[in-house]
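Page 47, continued from p. 46.
Same chain as before, 227 aa.
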Amino acid sequence: MAPRKAPETQPTRRSGRIEAAKVIQQAILDDQRSKVTKPKRFRRPQQRKRCLLLNKLPGEIRNMIWHYAVVQNPITVTSSGPGEPGLLRASRQIRRETRAMYYSANEFIVEVMDYDGAALTPWSRQHYRYANAESCCKILMLGEPDWGNLMRWCKDVAQTPCALIPALEQKKPKCDCGQHNHYPDDDVAEGMIRIADELRWNLGWASVEKVLEGAHQAVTARNRDWA
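Result:
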């Protein structure tokens, strides 16, 4: 005898409702997923590595253009700016061709407020790296004596080779505005910075700081503003 075929089971009302609920729930989930949009990913604007138009010009002509664009004598530098010209951020090629010219051909007047030379270390690092030996940089010390700022400046000098160091042999630039007068406190600051610069080759900052703190008493006796 041939085997009998098993009778097909008819779905019950309860199982039908369960299947219908699953279908509806899946449709709702699919609809929600389709509405969810991923946030746009931030992408930094890419700089052009090469400027095709400028590459058609000879290097001599490009240097003339850069000279007229970035040489702006004199340039006053403070802790709040100005930064590098916007032209230096146009492309990598332009930055490579103009950065050394900007730091070498310009005359910089660096204004140190309240003897906080450490605030100008980022600028001094760029100037030290890209300027040539003929670059002109004059330092003006403005504001009131602040021993804490001076110690931070000396620490930068002792730990950073490219920190801002005033030159004792340079004469202070004359100015008729009455704001750039030379005070004896400038000699005190220059002396402390020179001590930190000379001792950094043989001693660590902890030892240099002790030497400067010993000189602090003599400086305070001369001017109470350094206390």
